[in-house]
Amino acid sequence: MAKKELLSTIRYVAGTKPVFRYSEILPYLSEPLSVEEMFRRTSSDLEKLGLTAQKKGGDYEISRLLPPQAYVLNPEESARLTQFFEERTVPVTLQESIGQYLAKKVGKDWTDPVILERLRRAIVAQKDDYWKPQHKRSLQYTKGYSVLGYLAYHFPVYFMQTEYLLALLARRGLLKKNMTILDAGTGPGVVPLAVADFYSRLDTATADVFSIERSEEHVEAFLALRKICVPPGGRVSIKPPIRADLRSLDLGALPAKVDLAVFSNVLNELPDSTMDMRAEIVAQIAERLAPDGTVLIVEPADEENATRMRSLTVALRKKGLFITSPCSFIWGTPCTAPRCWSFKAEPAIKMPRLMETLARCEESFRFVNTDIKYSYAILSKDPPKKEQYHLPAGSKFLRLSKLQQHVGKRINVACLKMSGELGDVRTHVFKICDGTAKTPVYAVLPSYHITPENDAITTAPYGSVLEMKGVLVRYNKAHDAYNLLVSRNTCACLKDPDCIS
Questions:
Q1: Among 214-228, 267-281, 340-354, which is the least confidently predicted range?
Q2: Which of 188, 211, 248, 414 has the smallest set of CB atoms within 10 Å of its CB?
């Protein structure tokens, strides 16, 4: 009998009974098998079916696995996290370890003017490469001063960015007490080191962190920083990176079950990779997800990369993954994400000493990287468990896909706030979406029109649902976009006050 038929039978019986024994499925089989033979053939696959088997006399009792409970932050843990984010500072130990590694690699103290100038040249070259057209970029960061420049310029912001995202996952109930985390394309270990630092503020949570990296130079930096920052025997165990290319990955090298798979600022840097290729990379690794596991994708906030990432999530939805954040499909229809530029912003970090030193030159702005803006998506294998906000058919709100019929009119809309501030202190501008628009839509609020009845537009968290009544529709021909003008007569209310974004 084929193993596939046996597992299919077990799955069928499990759908009819919460608890049963191997002996009970014998009548369904095309050929007889002993209980021990059935256990031998299927025991390694039961967990993937959400089942577990326990020896009962001469038989095995099969029952459903209880899903692990979410790790709930207690008040003390929340207070520690709040204090950390208020300080906006990369941990001193990590800053010092980067300086020590840099000095070891170049054979001089990193404050040497020659070393600083070489770092500056590496950073400028990386930035110039980044802004080239997608098909002409290399973005390797794989050897020599390119890795050292990455540590000095990119690492601090990406590290703090990861801490914010881990806090988001925790508050959404997506972290468990014992986690297996996989970081795909780890570079010098940004995500694993951020995980270790984040968990240092938790009381009892533990994590085993695996990673994938192809660059020998990055792996060397990763292990050097890990040695100083993450002593062995703690509640977070960071494994040596798996040396592999994401485009030709052997899934057998990965842990059997992953609770959180992270793709942080890596998919956009895969040379010559199409959208389908990137989606396939994520989908393959997602095969190792636990039934309640999570995929986190993070990309830079610039228009090209953020828009590509939204298109990627649409491709992943077609491959069976569900988008759980920040999007919420309030009309119950799937989004095609055309021209969707969406990003989240956090408070700027304080410059680490290395960055501050690099910036002591004529063109200091070239070497300052403290703004945290990123585009992210959280996906799962199963539909979201949290009840999402939906508008019923016949609702007295206009779909954003119908705006072209109402230019010059005042309307009511329900939407998600899908960007940080795009305007300035005089005119506030935010990207909004309801999952139906094929043309970008923005809420525009002049500061002199702000009232207690409409300021929810400026204060609402990213990804939260707003109902706005009395907005004026305008078409911006120059940008092929619609602006919804908010006045002092507009009423805007937050519909999901518990939204954590």
A1: 267-281
A2: 248
Q: Average pLDDT, stretch 243-259? A: 92
Number of H helices, E strands in the chain: 13, 18
Listing DSSP states for 294-337 in one string gives EEEEEEESSHHHHHHHHHHHHHHHHTT-EEEES---TTS-----
Q: What percent of the chain is modeled with pLDDT above 70?
A: 94
Residues whose CB is less than 8 angstroms from the CB of residue 354 and which lie 6 or more positions away in sequence, other chains included: 95, 98, 99, 102, 110, 152
Q: Which helix (H) or strand (E) holds 465?
A: strand 465-476
Q: Is the pTM of this model over 0.90?
A: no
**Burial track 273-294 (b if 16+ CB lie within 10 A, e otherwise):** beeeebbbbbbebbebbbebbb
Instruction: List Cβ neighbours of 108 (8 Å cut-off, separation of 6 or more).
Output: 114, 115
Pull the structure tokens for residue 411. Answer: 């309307």
Tell me the per-residue pLDDT of 107-131, one tens digit each, with 9 for 90 and over: 999 999 999 999 999 999 888 876 6
Instruction: For the beta carbon of residue 477, count every other beta carbon within 10 angstroms.
Output: 6
Residue 447's identity, in one-letter code, is S
Two structure tokens written together for 83: 């204090």
Residues whose CB falls within 8 Å of the CB of residue 496, separated by 6 or more in sequence, listed in order? 389, 464, 465
In the three-class reduction of DSSP (H, G, I as helix; E, B as strand; rest coil), residue 263 is classed as: strand
